[in-house]
Amino acid sequence: MTEKELRERASIKLEIEARKEVLKKVENAFKRLRKQADSNLEKRREKVRAAREYRSLDEAHEAWGYDFITDEEFEEIKKVFELGDAYIENNLSPQEVAVNILGRFMGGLNKEIRSFEFELLPIEEQKRIRKQKLN
Question: Taking residues 104-120, what's their average pLDDT?
Fold first, then answer.
């Protein structure tokens, strides 16, 4: 191998290691965000279950009128009756959106790592893999 090729391989290896380091650092944040996101999702599901204890919006309105539920609870129940299961899917928390963003970012880094690792393979091995993927 020429000096230039050796430098290029060293540079690629550095890029791989740098991305792996970033992944290690953000993995913990991803896990914490995922836990918060899952908790927020479960809270929304619980609100839907609680709202479905009422057979109708009129029944919930009556409970609100007798101060059995707060204004905020009544508004949530109205949303659930209006949106149904879409309430769960469409009212994402910032943590849930952050999990999606971070997941895409991590996926991109993993894709780059695989690409760099592929570049480090011998040419014949690269050809074999490409041919295998076409079949």
Answer: 97
Tokens 């101060």: give the residue: 67
Measured at the CA of 21, the angle between CA 18 and CA 24, to 5 degrees, comes to 155
pTM for this one?
Answer: 0.73
d(CA 82, CA 111): 41
- Nearest by Cα to 105 from 12, 26, 9: 26
10 Å CB burial of residue 65 (0-12, 13-18, 19+) is: exposed
CA 57 to chain centre: 34
Angstrom distance (rounded) from CA 84 to CA 129: 48
Give the model confidence (pLDDT) of 51-74 as tens digits.
Answer: 778 888 888 888 888 888 888 888
